[in-house]
Specification:
The complex is a heterodimer of chains A (158) and B (363). Chain A is built from 4 helices and 4 strands; from the N terminus they run ααβββααβ. Chain A is globular, with a radius of gyration of 21 Å. In chain A, 44% of the residues lie in helices and 27% in strands. With 363 residues, chain B is α+β, with helices and mostly antiparallel strands. Chain B has 3 domains: 10-83, no CATH class; 97-121 and 154-169 and 180-320, no CATH class; 337-362. Helix content of chain B is 38%, strand content 15%. In chain B, 35% of the residues are buried. The chains are: A alpha+beta (158), B alpha+beta (363). At the A-B interface, α1, β1, β2, β3 and α4 of A face β1, β2, β3, β4 and α7 of B. β1 of chain A pairs parallel with β2 (88-91) of chain B, so a sheet runs across the interface.
Chain lengths: 158, 363
């Protein structure tokens, strides 16, 4: 695993997008709990934030046409640096500064070849599984309300 | 008309605020409502405040509802004011609602459609009878809702199905950055992206009444609900320091695609046209009203006669924002003493002149 910088391959970018998506959806308490199960992570310095701001959320007219501005959402971001210069970034929905900082720290650690596999196994894999289970439960509840309407006499009394 | 600055009243104002705080809390013998309880148990109020406050943050919207004592327009106002204190980090990639984790998806145009009809947690089919069982406190939480095997079949948008057949006007493909009402004041003619932004944050009641007016004949709509879908969509953002898109979380949105008749024109064959609604949170009534009004505002673009209020962009867009509207209506409570004094003088002079003329005529 090499850092996903300017020289990163598309596979590196895709892997980093994958773990950043999982971290963005994990509450701070869950991140802290997973980190506690790891050997201590390297010390980090805050380069920016954590700080809360807004992202303008866009939709598309008709669902698939030109973009329009739907409204804003709160976002918290953080950038940290490990002792060896590795940078970790996080942008997470909401206002949880602790979540953003832990996510940035984990993003940095995951780019370090000697830490990558352990962090993936102890942090990302179980969180991803829990998130997939949550989505699966919603999908199954939705499936239980799926109907087949049978058309009967029309309302017009023809 | 203008209001004037006044001084004084500090003590009265402080006492009024103290009473407001007491009234907000209510009877201390009744347990205090937590922000988390509002977020969890008054979720649709939270959704409405996020939509009209134009800021997706459940915790902030719930806090605003508590502070506003449940006055949802006041709560939207609080949320709008708060958002002005935050920097903007950027704009998201346009949401992909076709990839939504769907909790509800219904169509009134197709009985059988790919992905099926999914009722979700809906008030539809309830009898609207007060449920006194909810009055009881300390009852155990309800059993988790039943689950069934999910086939994971894709749920394409109904408008896309019609567009594929060539029976629905396709949306012009565009990646043009949309105008932003929060940065540039509204100007006319307003293009459709700007109109949709205004409608998405517009007042549900106002848009509901306007949408209703199009159904009753003020503007010829003939709408069908092609589709309503509610669920969670991922939000993607490309931070410049990374240079690639990352997923920052999921938000709940409601989307409504209305299908409307269009008789055709010199250049266009008869076909269906779209009205589109998209709002933060679970807000079907708002999304449907938005879609009706979006379509009626396209009258001029489609060469239709535009005579009804819902077809007038100026009328609709200048009046749909409840924070603007409440500001201007409620400013009438501010001191207008000088203005009113001059009105009083004028009326007294007119009365005196009229009285004198009457006396003269009687003599």
């Amino acid at each position: 695993m090499t850092p996903a910088g300017p020289a990163a391959t598309s596979d590196d970018v895709a892997a980093r997008q994958g773990w950043m998506a999982v971290l963005a959806r994990a509450p701070a308490a869950a991140l802290a709990e997973r980190i506690a199960a790891l050997p201590p992570l390297p010390a980090h310095a805050r380069l920016r934030g954590p700080e809360t701001g807004l992202a303008m959320v866009r939709g598309r007219q008709g669902g698939d046409g030109a973009p329009f501005n739907l409204g804003e959402m709160t976002v918290t971001r953080c950038t940290v640096r490990l002792g060896d210069g590795t940078l970790g970034h996080a942008y997470v929905a909401g206002r949880d500064a602790r979540q953003a900082e832990l996510a940035a720290l984990l993003d940095a650690a995951l780019q370090r070849p000697e830490l990558h596999d352990a962090v993936m196994a102890a942090v990302i894999a179980p969180l991803a599984a829990a998130q997939a289970a949550g989505r699966g439960s919603v999908a199954r509840k939705a499936a239980a309300t799926r109907v087949a309407f049978a058309t009967m006499a029309t309302m017009r009394g023809e | 008309m203008a209001y004037v600055a006044v001084k004084g009243g500090e003590d009265a104002i402080a006492h009024a605020h103290a009473w407001l705080a007491e009234a907000r809390r209510g009877d201390p013998a009744v347990p205090e409502l937590s922000v988390a309880q509002i977020g969890q148990q008054l979720g649709l109020a939270v959704d409405r405040v996020m939509a009209e406050g134009s800021c997706h943050d459940r915790g902030l919207a719930a806090l605003a509802i508590k502070q506003a004592r449940g006055d949802l327009i006041e709560a939207a106002f609080l949320l709008r004011a708060y958002r002005t204190t935050l920097p903007r980090f950027g704009a998201s990639a346009p949401l992909d609602t076709a990839a939504m984790l769907v909790r509800r998806r219904i169509s009134a145009t197709y009985k059988d459609l790919p992905g099926g009809q999914v009722l979700g947690p809906t008030f539809d089919y309830t009898h609207r009878l007060l449920d006194f069982a909810l009055e009881a406190e300390g009852a155990p939480p309800p059993e988790p809702a039943p689950e069934a095997e999910a086939d994971g079949a894709p749920m394409p948008r109904v408008s896309g199905i019609l567009a594929q057949e060539g029976l629905m006007a396709a949306e012009p493909a565009s990646e043009a950055p949309p105008g932003d009402l929060t940065r540039e004041p509204l100007a006319f003619p307003a293009d459709r992206p700007l109109r949709l932004q205004a409608l998405a944050r517009g007042d549900e009641g106002f848009l509901l009444a306007l949408g209703y007016s199009t159904q009753r004949g003020y503007g010829n709509a003939h709408p069908f609900v092609g589709e309503i879908r509610v669920g969670e969509v991922a939000v993607g953002l490309t931070p410049p320091e990374l240079g690639f898109e990352i997923s920052i979380g999921d938000i709940t949105v409601t989307e409504c695609g209305m299908v409307n008749q269009f008789a055709g024109s010199k250049t266009e064959p008869p076909q269906f046209t779209r009205g589109y609604g998209l709002v933060f949170g679970h807000g079907e009534r708002k999304a449907m009203a938005m879609a009706l009004v979006d379509r009626s505002l396209r009258a001029a673009e489609l060469g239709e006669e535009a005579a009804a209020p819902a077809q007038s962009p100026e009328f609709v867009l200048y009046h749909c924002d409840n924070v603007d509207a409440t500001g201007f209506v409620e400013h009438l409570k501010l001191p207008h003493y000088v203005d009113f004094q001059s009105e009083l003088e004028k009326i007294r002079t007119l009365r005196a002149t009229a009285d004198a003329a009457q006396r003269e005529a009687a003599e």
